[in-house]
From TrEMBL:
InterPro entries: DUF3817_TM. Residues 9-95 form the DUF3817 domain. The chain crosses the membrane at residues 39-60, 72-89. The keyword Lipid biosynthesis does not apply. This is Membrane protein. Pfam families: DUF3817. It is a multi-pass membrane protein. It is found in: Cell membrane. It comes from Streptomyces viridochromogenes.
Length: 114
């Protein structure tokens, strides 16, 4: 894996968990808006919107660089629209990055001819 691909995956990982947290907070704020006088939906909506846009931009960059299959790319996109999906995306991306590093080291040491 080259440095640009690793960076793209790292950026996607860095935004996936905060995006999931912001989504959950937005859901809580929506409930509070309807049940109390507390209304933080405009603020949390903006925060979540920015994080979601960043997630989609970083997802597209990672898809382009990693050459994921359509199924894998779709999975990461679907995880972005599920309330806790960002946490699962973070775990899967971490595992994928670790496997890529292991494969890269193996190629450098001549263990795998790829």
């Amino acid at each position: 894996m080259d440095i640009k691909t690793a960076t793209a995956l790292r950026r996607l990982r860095l935004v996936s968990a905060p995006e999931a947290v912001s989504f959950l907070l937005l859901l809580v704020c929506s409930v509070l808006k309807r049940t109390t006088d507390f209304n933080a939906v405009p603020v949390m909506g903006a925060v979540h919107g920015i994080l979601f846009i960043l997630y989609v931009i970083f997802w597209a960059d990672a898809w382009n660089r990693t050459k994921w299959s359509l199924k894998t790319a779709a999975l990461y996109f679907v995880l972005s629209v599920l309330p806790t999906g960002g946490f699962f995306a973070d775990r899967k991306l971490k595992r994928e990055a670790e496997n890529a590093v292991i494969a890269s080291r193996a190629r450098k040491e001549g263990i795998v001819n790829a």
